[in-house]
Amino acid sequence: MNEVATVAFRAERTAGVSGIFAGDGAAVTTVADTEGGWSGFHGLPVIDARGTVVFRADRENGVQGIYAGRGGSTETLAETGDVFETLAFFPSTNDGGTVAFAATLRAGGAGIFTVDQGQIVQVLDTEGEFESCRGALISSAGEVVCIATPRGESLGLFAGPDPDADRILALGDPLLGSTVADLAANPVSINADGHVAVRATLADGRQLILRADPTD
């Protein structure tokens, strides 16, 4: 949901037809559906302050993509083909229109990327300290939180490319007298100020919702 209370969501509209929609309490608008050249939708659509909905979808020709829909038109942000082999299911966007996402590359390896006004920039790669990338969150200031696995270690959240200095929380970390057994975050887990909400399960069975302030 954005600041003017428009909600983006994924749903089944009729039997066999799924889509991405936006609703403001007065009307529901179709952003994209499987009657319009799409074969399926994944993850969680997100919406910015302007009402642009960013979503991950597959086309009927087998191409995976990340797209932005608004006012009846759809813009391609990234697709598999020449550069990308696969795209993660959960892109994130901020109110400035910058989108962050994880992907694997056709040339090998993987990374975290941002795209803004058609320009794609890689912000994390798997040639150094990290061996895999699962997703990304982006704040209004453009700061990217990476969901990734450092080489030889466990999955975690990182506020930058240094797995030690930029570590927010990772599996196996000591916490509240126990250790982290599971954690989860998604594109709506970050707010405009860069605070991150994380769901964690500890080895002793406790379940927690945590707030991390990596930009403070």
Question: Would you mind describing this structure in some detail?
Answer:
The protein has 216 residues and is mainly beta. It is built from no helices and 20 strands. It starts with 6 loop residues before the first strand and ends with a strand. Strands 8, 9, 10, 11 and 12 form a five-stranded antiparallel β-sheet that branches. The model has no long low-confidence stretch (mean pLDDT 95).
How does the overall form come out from the CA principal axes?
globular
Tell me, rounded to a whole number, the average pLDDT. 95
| Largest sheet composition | 5 strands, antiparallel
Beta-strand content: over 45%
Question: Order of helices and strands, N to C?
Answer: EEEEEEEEEEEEEEEEEEEE
The count of strands amounts to: 20
**Rounded Rg:** 18 Å
What's the total helix number? 0
Low-confidence stretches: none
Strand-pairing-aware structural class: mainly beta
Helix coverage percent of residues?
under 10%
The N- and C-terminal alpha carbons lie at a distance of 25 Å
Topology:
Blueprint: E1 7-14, E2 17-23, E3 28-33, E4 38-47, E5 53-59, E6 64-70, E7 73-79, E8 84-87, E9 92-93, E10 99-105, E11 110-116, E12 119-125, E13 130-138, E14 144-150, E15 156-158, E16 167-170, E17 174-175, E18 178-184, E19 196-202, E20 207-212
Short note summarizing the structure:
By secondary structure, the protein is mostly beta strands. It contains no helices and 20 strands.
Features:
216 residues; single chain; 57% strand; five-stranded antiparallel sheet; four-stranded antiparallel sheet; globular; 0% helix; mainly beta
